[in-house]
Amino acid sequence: MNDNTQLLSAMIRAARAAGGRIMHYFRPGAEVSAAAEITQKSHDHPLTRADTEANEVIQQTLMSETPDYGWLSEETIDSVDRLAKKRIWIVDPLDGTKEFIRGVPEFAVSIALVEEGLPILACLFNPAKDELFTAIAGKGSRKNDMPIQTTRTTHLAGAACLASRSETERGDWASFKDEFALRTTGSIAYKLSLLAEGRADLTFTLTPKNEWDIAAGDLLVREAHGQVTDKDGARLVFNQTLPRLSAVLATNGQLHPALLRRLMAMPLNRDRCRNPDVTPCQPDGK
């Protein structure tokens, strides 16, 4: 299977099947059922059966059809074999696990196909809202098969900005509360899809994130005429030896130069991974 349209169809099947597993445990407005079997991978980084079951169905669906591709997922032990692959699946089977556990419908299945470091296909699915976001490099982004694009806002002051719930609770966004129209939202993958759809003007994090949180959203935003970079303005490159990104800035494109200037003097938040050189850790908000 090499045709991008066929590959995207397989991604959609995998995402919807994973979404079905996730919704088996989800309880809107209430904590998930006991059957979800909540455990802790590390301090404040929960894991549920929904995470692992979603990962299994995605991996089985995609790798059975593309056995020569590489694989990087939050819920799979990493292998250096992926570094030699031209194409690699980068997957977060459930981004926003904390929101999922609390009954907040701000989580997503995130799947990207990366070729030589750059995403070429993206599929992001919020099963609680039946929102399916897709993108093909050079062919635009879509939500539920309808074209989407970012806003055209040109003024940074007062811009609609999606802020991390966990970062807000830690006080990381206190210095921006009078500058942006902040809206606290779970799951950075889902935030990127909302930005691509034009439901906000920008989002950013100065806290390190894992590649699987960002890869699909990166393409969604770019194909919707937005921009995604690191804090220095460089394009994000995926399938690195240590799949960690020091910071992520995403805007509608119009606001990107101003946001880079605004954050130039801001320090990066510390990486809360305990042992990042051994195993990629779970990002904040999981």
What can you see in these coordinates?
By secondary structure, the chain is α+β, with helices and mostly antiparallel strands. It folds into two domains: 145 residues, 2-Layer Sandwich (Fructose-1,6-Bisphosphatase, Chain A, domain 1), CATH 3.30.540; 104 residues, D-Maltodextrin-Binding Protein, domain 2 (3-Layer(aba) Sandwich). The protein is built from seven helices and 16 strands. The strands form four sheets. A seven-stranded mixed β-sheet has the order 3-4-5-6-7-8-9, with helices on both faces. Strands 11-10-12-16-14 form a five-stranded mixed β-sheet, sandwiched between helices. Helix 1 runs antiparallel to helix 2 and helix 5 runs parallel beside helix 6. The radius of gyration is 17 Å and the shape is globular. The protein starts with a helix and ends in a 23-residue tail after the last helix. 47% of the residues are buried.
Strand content: 25-35%
- Alpha carbon gap, first and last residue: 33 Å
Helix percent reads 25-40%
Assigned CATH architecture of the largest domain: 2-Layer Sandwich
Count of structural domains: 2
The Rg value, from CA coordinates, equals: 17 Å
Low-confidence stretches: 274-286
The CATH top-level class label of the largest domain: Alpha Beta
Return the CATH topology of the largest domain.
Fructose-1,6-Bisphosphatase, Chain A, domain 1
The coarse silhouette is globular
Beta strands, count:
16
